């Protein structure tokens, strides 16, 4: 069981955005996609979701071409959080989360459990009767995360696809979201995230794939990819690895010399 791209390329107006991509999301694994802005991450995400069709190659879920799945059947197996989900109606927070259960109109008890459970898990329960439009950006993002969780709530071996899910969140809620996502993977869900934070990716991912210039540059477990030289090839910056009992962290190499500017901070 998996969602996978098989030798997928995608072009628009004769410009290649991604080329020869082989990528897989499997149940029980948290897979993080990393790379610079414009590398092709969001294009890969849209291909995995079926929002765009490959120019060549195939996108499959459970061995069946994604184009052969109905929208309803797709919604029963995978849940998606995009960057640009907008609501222009006066919904309450709880009503937004209930949208994740729209494909289960006759399962009222289970729907209630899913909505209340995800609101509690994302620490949005005390906002459930608030107007969604009155929330901060980070609170809206947490509400949307609760919505996509509710869609596949208590249904292991389903898939959770998240495009920059921590955007706009404070540090505590970034950690909360990543810990929930990692726990979902441990329960058997296939979880895929696009992130920009290297340290978060290396802390929580089971597998990391780096995209560069529309191609997969390298893919492996975090332990296999602890290489500042490799990261310099991808990001063009010099990084140092810091080893701690909690894991590894990357920080920029400090090339500053002793200057009046530097002394002003001492």
TrEMBL record:
Keyword terms of this UniProt record: ATP-binding, Nucleotide-binding, Translocase, Transport
The organism's place on the tree of life at top rank: Bacteria
InterPro entries in the record: AAA+_ATPase, ABC_transporter-like_ATP-bd, P-loop_NTPase
Secretion signal, residue range per the UniProt entry: none
GO MF, any single term: ATP hydrolysis activity
All residue ranges annotated as the ABC transporter domain in the record: 3-238
Pfam families: ABC_tran
PROSITE patterns per the UniProt record, alphabetical: ABC_TRANSPORTER_2
Function: Part of the ABC transporter complex HmuTUV involved in hemin import. Responsible for energy coupling to the transport system.
Name under which the protein is recorded: Heme ABC transporter ATP-binding protein
């Amino acid at each position: 069981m998996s969602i996978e791209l098989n030798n997928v390329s995608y072009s628009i107006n004769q410009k290649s955005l991604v080329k020869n991509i082989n990528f897989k999301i499997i149940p029980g694994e948290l897979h993080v996609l990393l790379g610079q802005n414009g590398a092709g991450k969001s294009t890969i995400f849209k291909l995995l979701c079926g929002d765009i069709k490959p120019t060549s190659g195939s996108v499959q879920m459970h061995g069946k071409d994604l184009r052969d799945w109905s929208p309803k059947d797709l919604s029963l197996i995978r849940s998606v959080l995009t960057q640009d989900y907008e609501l222009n109606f006066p919904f309450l927070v709880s009503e937004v989360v209930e949208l994740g259960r729209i494909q289960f109109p006759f399962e009222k008890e289970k729907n209630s459990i899913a909505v209340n459970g995800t609101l509690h898990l994302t620490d949005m329960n005390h906002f459930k009767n608030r107007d969604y439009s009155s929330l901060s950006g980070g609170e809206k993002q947490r509400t949307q995360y609760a919505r996509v969780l509710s869609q596949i709530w208590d249904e292991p071996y389903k898939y959770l696809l998240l495009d920059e899910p921590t955007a706009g969140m404070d540090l505590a809620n970034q950690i909360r979201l990543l810990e929930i996502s990692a726990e979902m993977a441990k329960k058997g869900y296939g979880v895929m995230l696009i992130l920009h934070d290297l340290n978060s990716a290396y802390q929580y991912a089971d597998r990391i794939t780096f995209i560069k210039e529309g191609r997969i540059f390298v893919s492996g477990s975090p332990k296999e990819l602890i290489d500042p030289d490799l990261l310099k090839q991808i990001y063009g910056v010099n990084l140092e690895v810091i080893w701690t009992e909690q894991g590894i962290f990357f920080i920029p190499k400090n090339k500053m010399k002793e200057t009046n500017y530097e002394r002003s901070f001492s």
